[in-house]
Predict the structure.
Amino acid sequence: MNTAPTTTTAPKPAQGLPRLRQAWLNSMRGLRLAYAGERAFRQETALAVVLVPMAFWLGRSWVEVALLAGCVWLVLIVELLNSAIEAAIDRIGPERHVLSGRAKDVASAAVWMSLTLCATVWGAALWSRWA
């Protein structure tokens, strides 16, 4: 009788193009979930649909276009991270905890800061263009 402990090995992770495909599919699922479940993300996406093309009209150089469009994308990125943090905290349980509240508040502050940055950059560009 063999008394040696049996070991199992985890499946080998995908590499190369299959790994990239799976990462892309995971990302698309995350975007769909965020869009379906987060009103703020839907609102910011609607704003991005208007502002990103407008950046190409307003920007006078590729740097200006990149700053204008980039700060809009940054808002979406930070909102996705905020949603992920909220989901992870909510998964832990419904009871209130000071650290859970702190994590949610800090993530919300990050969204607010990204929105403030975006408004400032766009305001400066509009001022520069028409003032």
